[in-house]
């Protein structure tokens, strides 16, 4: 356990260095690491302790660079959203939202290939209602996953802020979010002793990182700063998508096997799905069902067929733009008769 804590400490220092240089990302870097230590529902608590400490220390270090217009429109709309996200955490599996976040981060790939002139042309202040919307969305995502920085880094970069303004303004915006989240997690019992311990380790490492990174930023140009930011978003998105997908496969019992009809099926939790493509009918999704799930008119047909065959297996079929249909796989003397009702 001691070695794991030491690893987490130095990984956190590095993550918050990268976070400051890229305009965000420490939380998304730490989520896959914390997945090795904690259940997914406790990870936001540990991250929030660390990021709250990091934001507070960055405000102290870079306070003269805070861009107050963004702060004034961002924070009021983010507060109710983080309350909503924190409440929904009791009902939503954060792993699925992490997949969405990973895909959104990967959408920044085109930004890596834009020239300095193209990037400069895209930079302009957003209208106030956009600031309010971004604040609300950031609060909602943060309330569920505990991480927002890197996902909304594109917003800060395109607003035209300098690297110091990005670090300072984002930190000021997030102090309120992290404080509210911490209260919500404590209120709903979304924490543990291990989560608290790891959160303290992250917090101490974050302070060390915040005070040391001010010596690094002056050596980076604005253009390089932005390229690193977009690159970090893409890499973190790929890393987050892979690690979260592995967790979902393991925890949701996802597997791909052959069923009794020699079809390749995907199992998820207690359900099985078949994805097919037919030239005349397009994509189909099939799911095996029980007789009691049939509509009354097809249940009577099943009752007739079960007396004529040794076994009858049932599937419900979904097609885009078509009504639901049902397939009956009827076996007698090891011979299959397939009947479809639409």
From TrEMBL:
Organism: Leptospira perdikensis
The protein's name: Probable membrane transporter protein
UniProt family annotation: Belongs to the 4-toluene sulfonate uptake permease (TSUP) (TC 2.A.102) family.
Keyword Transmembrane helix: yes
Subcellular location: Cell membrane
Entry keyword annotation includes Cell membrane: yes
Transmembrane segments: 7-30, 36-54, 66-89, 95-113, 125-151, 171-188, 195-217, 223-242
A Pfam family assignment: TauE
Topological category with respect to the lipid bilayer: Multi-pass membrane protein
Keyword annotations from UniProtKB, A to Z: Cell membrane, Membrane, Transmembrane, Transmembrane helix, Transport
Gene Ontology CC: one annotated term: plasma membrane
Top-level division of the source organism's lineage: Bacteria
């Amino acid at each position: 356990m001691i070695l794991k804590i030491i690893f987490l400490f130095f990984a956190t220092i590095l993550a918050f260095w990268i976070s400051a240089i890229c305009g965000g990302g420490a939380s998304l870097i730490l989520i896959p690491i914390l997945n090795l230590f904690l259940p997914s529902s406790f990870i936001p608590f540990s991250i929030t302790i660390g990021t709250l400490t990091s934001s507070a220390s960055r405000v102290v270090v870079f306070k003269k660079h805070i861009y107050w217009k963004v702060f004034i429109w961002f924070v009021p709309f983010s507060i109710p959203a983080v309350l909503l996200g924190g409440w929904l955490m009791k009902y939503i599996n954060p792993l699925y939202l992490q997949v969405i976040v990973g895909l959104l981060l990967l959408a920044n790939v085109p930004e890596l290939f834009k020239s300095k002139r193209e990037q400069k042309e895209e930079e302009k202040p957003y209208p106030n209602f956009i600031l309010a919307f971004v604040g609300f969305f950031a609060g909602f995502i943060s309330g569920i996953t505990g991480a927002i920085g890197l996902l909304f880094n594109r917003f800060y970069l395109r607003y035209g802020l300098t690297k110091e303004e990005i670090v300072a303004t984002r930190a000021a915006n997030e102090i309120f979010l992290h404080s509210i989240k911490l209260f919500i997690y404590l209120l709903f019992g979304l924490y543990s002793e291990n989560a608290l311990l790891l959160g303290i380790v992250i917090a101490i490492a974050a302070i060390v990182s915040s005070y040391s990174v001010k010596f690094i930023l002056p050596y980076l140009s604005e253009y390089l700063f932005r390229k690193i930011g977009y690159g970090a978003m893409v890499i973190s998105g790929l890393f987050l998508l892979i690690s979260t997908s592995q967790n979902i496969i393991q925890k949701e019992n996802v597997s791909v096997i052959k069923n009794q009809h020699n079809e390749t099926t995907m199992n998820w939790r207690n359900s099985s799905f078949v994805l097919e493509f037919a030239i005349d009918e397009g994509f189909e999704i099939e799911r095996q069902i029980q007789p009691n799930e049939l509509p009354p008119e097809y249940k009577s047909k099943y009752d007739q067929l079960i007396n004529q065959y040794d076994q009858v297996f049932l599937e419900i079929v979904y097609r885009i733009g078509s009504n639901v249909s049902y397939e009956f796989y009827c076996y007698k003397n090891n011979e299959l008769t397939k009947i479809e009702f639409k």
